Amino acid sequence: MALGGVSLDVAQRELVALLGPNGSGKTTLFRILTTALLPGGGSVSIFGADVVRQPWRARREIGVVFQSPSLDRKLTPAENLRHQGHLYGLRGRELEQRIATALERVGLAERARERVERLSGGLARRVELAKGMLHRPRLLLLDEPTTGLDPSARRDFWSYFDAVRRETGATAILTTHLLDEAERADRIALLDEGRLVALGAPAALKAEIGGDVVTVQTAEPERLAAAVAERFGCSPAVVEGAVRIELARGHELVPRLVEAFPDAIRGLTLGKPTLDDVFVHRTGRHFHADQGPDT
Amino acid sequence: MSRFGWAVLTLWQRELVRFYRQPSRVVGALAPPVLFWLLIGTGLGPSFRVPGGSAGTSYLAYFFPGVVILILLFTAIFSEISIIEDRREGFLQAVLVAPVPRASVVLGKVLGGTTLAVLQSALFLALGPAVGLRPSSAGAVAVLAVVLFLLAFALTALAAAIAWWLDSTQGFHAIMNLFLVPMWLLAGTLFPAQGAPGWLGTVMRVNPLSYGVAALRRALSAGGAAGPGFALSLGVTSACAVVAFAAATWVAARRPSR
Q1: Angle made by CA atoms A230, A232, A235, in degrees to the nearest 5
Q2: pLDDT in the model for residue B258
Q3: A36–chain B Cβ distance below 8 A for any pair
Q4: Between chains, do B3 and A89 touch, taking CB under 8 Å as contact?
Q5: Which of B8, B91, B92, B258 best probes binding to A when mutated, by most A CB atoms within 10 angstroms?
Q6: For tag attachment on chain B, is the N or C end more exposed, with fewer CB atoms within 10 Å?
Q7: ipTM, 2 decimals?
Q8: pLDDT for res A294
Q9: Rounded alpha-carbon distances, angstroms, from residue B99 to A143, A162, B104
Q10: Which one of B9, B14, B89 has the shortest CB-CB distance to A69?
Q11: What is the pLDDT of residues B161-176, one digit of tens each?
Q12: Cβ(B201)–Cβ(B58) below 8 Å
């Protein structure tokens, strides 16, 4: 997926989520940040190191947790971390101490000598986190880090992740297609079709919608939308077969709406804006995690 | 030691450890060639006579160096084919974004495969005395070790170059069947170039692996003395090792991480 006009600055110690459906360009952006893919244009700088001109400096600043496992399953967590350390110029006693600390931090000191293939998916993910942080990078990059984990392993991962960030003060950028995971971030960069469609704190993005969202299920959405617009002077939109109205004090509209069109309305919901509403607001479509091929 | 050296060392060590933690791989690279040797060697033995060789050279002895090469080739393929999948969803992802030169990654992986190939073939070479093939002196053992190393390095680097170039293991299997196995067949492993019809003999003489087989044959004194000389054979094999490694490094450096 090509990227165009994506521009953002990440402050130190900030956690930014790149949120987008599959095919939105977030993985492309992630690969550029990890220096795995050369951008066709534009520039990316990581703590002052340009990823194209000084990839070596950039690589020392980043720790990466890939979406697919990067651990050697035939080796133990400690052995995996030892190889990682060697690649970053660490060795000897210092390396052994760091391995011990890193595994302890993710609650795996006891399992350091078992082969990775015998660890559950959740534990292996935590070893990936320890591996990515071993050389104490200032920027941690995570690509959909909880893919394939069950809800409790997911919660565990995030609580260890929070602890690691608290202790190390690392800045982090994470890609996700899960709305609730994006909510954890200080700021969300919402991507769609290779473009940055929104950027801001989760609460601020939702506040932009102003108040409430009323969604009406009906057989003829276009007709109902036109009628609602005429009668109440608001600006409803038709989104995927439903009439959607963004307004302040939505609760006041609901009874009047039901009174006015008792036969046309099949169902109605009133809610505070969610990140999905932010996505609809910006793109005119609902957020579907799997819109296209993952690129 | 430099960052380059540590990267090579750590990747080399990983290759060895993971190989010996998968017993099926140890057997997989060794058993088929030994089986070929016993079946083909025993079956063809009575109807085969080495052209120009002494009548006493059995086919089992003639075929022996070819089987050593096959073990080297299989071990090389099995160790390097992992590059293809590892790059996309495995250990190599992290290696490729680490601050180490790409050439050190290639060298560590190739040296790992080379070491495994040499060790596997050494196991088979222990059977040599059973068919009258044993190095005559300590010097001959050293020569044999050098020849084995060069051959193993050249074949592993070749497998690495193919693996870095391709996107799927299926593609690798196709190349193995269409290119690597015929290259082995036409290297004087099963039959000598001298008796082959004109065009086939020509193909065999330009096949660089023929020189590797000839070098090994001479290091083992395994018959077929009419082939190329030892110095030429060793020279061609060394040149192939260098070219294959350069090719692997070149392909790996040009390829993005996935």
Answers
A1: 75
A2: 46
A3: yes
A4: yes
A5: B91
A6: N
A7: 0.88
A8: 44
A9: 20, 26, 11
A10: B89
A11: 999 999 999 999 999 9
A12: no
